[in-house]
Each structure stands twice: as C-alpha cells, then as structure tokens.
Amino acid sequence: MLTPLLTPAVSVPVQRAVCADDDTPMSLHVDSAAGQRAEIPRSGGLAVPYVTAWSAEQNVSGEVILRPGGGVGYLDESIVDRDAYGVLWVRSASCPGAGKPVFGEVHSLRQRRAMRRLLCQVCGDAADRTPDGILWLLPDFREDWPGWPDAMANVEPPICLRCAGVSMRLCPRLRRGAAVVRVLECPVVGVRGKLYAPGQEGPILVGTDAFAFDDLRIRWVQAFSLVRQLRGCTLVMPGELTGHDS
Ligand SMILES: [Zn+2]
Fold first, then answer.
1. pTM value?
2. Which of 38, 153, 229, 240 is deepest in the core (most CB within 10 A)?
3. Does residue 44 come out as left (phi exceeding 0), alpha (psi in the -120 to 50 range) or beta?
4. What is the 24 CA–ligand 1 centroid distance (Å)?
5. Using CB atoms within 10 A of its CB, is residue 65 exposed (0-12), middle (13-18) or buried (19+)?
6. Is 224 in contact with 193 (CB distance < 8 Å)?
7. Domains of the chain: which residue ranges?
8. Separation of 121 CA from ligand 1 center, angstroms?
9. Cis peptide before 187, with omega less than 30 degrees from 0?
10. Which residues have C-beta under 5 Å from ligand 1, the single-atom ion?
C-alpha cells in the first residue's frame, strides 16, 4: 500500500496517527504519583492523545476562494494563514478538552506543532531521542518495500519512550502489528491537504494527498498536516526498546 517517497513529489499515501483512526480509544492510565502528564485532557477516565481532535474544535476556515493570480486562499486571509513556504493552512479552533474526543481525527495545529518540534503525539512532551535516532511507533507495513519505512512520507508525529510502551499495550490498531523505528533524519518535506482545481464558480475539491513544498500544485492546496520524510531508519524489536524516558 505504501511506497517510498519520490522526491520532489510527495505522492505516496501516508500513515495516520497512532490510534487516531481507531474507533476504540486508547486508555492511558496516568500515573499521577509520578507527576507526569497532568496536562493531558481526559474523557471518561481516558487520557486522550495530544494530537486527537475534540468535538468543540471546529473547522473555522470559512470559504476557500480562487486567488486572482491562481491558487486558493481565504477572502479574509491574513499572514497567519500561510506558513513560511506560502502554503495555505486549514483554520481550526483550538480548545483541547472541550466536548468529546474525536478519535478518528487529528487536530491540525497540534499535529503541525508536534511534527515541527518533534513532540510525542500522545503526551505532547519531547519525543525520545538517542544517538540511534528519534523514536517512531508506526503501524507495521514492513512488507511494502525493502528497507521500509526508509524514505516514507509520514504525517505521524514521533513518540516518547513511555508512551510507546503504553501504546503498544493498549492501542487496538498497534496491537495488531506495530513497528518501533529509530530515525536518524526526518526533514520536513511537505504537507498533506486538500487539492483544489479552478471552477467556474470557485475552487473545486478534487482530492486529498501529500505534496512536496516544491510541487507546482501546492498553491492549490489547503494543508492540514505537516509531512516529514523518514531517513536512516532502523527497526527495533519492542523488547529491545531503550532510550531516554521523557
Ligand atoms: Zn509521550
């Protein structure tokens, strides 16, 4: 299903966040005695992963319009609607803990922040890092190509050591097969988002995909996830997992 990233086009399907596409929430039982993760919002006794969207966090983008010079934008667009590459980003309300967690959805701003700063997608603290690389926990698709997941375009933020252990035990999706990966290099290479085309009465949504920053179609994209490419990957046996417990 997954194929290596072909530079410059980020044209491959990318994996979603741990547990975020599962209907069954992952239960993280917070160790309050250790003073860890008191900031993680909870719902029904469950700690909700940092990147998970909440029902009150509506998409407040408003209408996507055609820009005079080509591409898409917002009618009331401001400088904060685009990143340093000039890419348009979805507008999402940010109020984690409000309403109910939506385990099928990742919050755009928190995904972007976690990816940019290499934060754990579950607790929001720093992801684990050793001389062997940054820690990632991915659904296991190692049969997809030799050397998987090397060169993969990835929207899934990394993870800390403690949350990796909990996730492998409690996340239904990962219990079916998880790959623990150390990654030496993970440059930000693009975005995942909605691709629009010009229509008679405005932009027409034509699909969702990942796009490299130098892809000519990028000005027709409304981004919702930041993409890093994983390079220098080493698969680790879960039982051999060691590192800096963040
Ligand atoms: Zn964590």
1. 0.82
2. 153
3. left
4. 19
5. middle
6. yes
7. 32-240
8. 7
9. no
10. 120, 122-123, 160, 163
Q: What would the pLDDT profile of 203-239 be if each residue is shown by its tens digit?
A: 999 999 999 999 999 999 999 999 999 999 999 987 7
pLDDT digits (tens, 9 = 90+) for 64-101: 999 988 999 999 999 999 999 999 999 999 999 899 99
Ligand 1 centroid distance, CA of 225 (Å): 19
Cα–Cα dist 46/41, whole Å: 8
- Ligand 1 centre and the CA of 163: distance in Å? 4
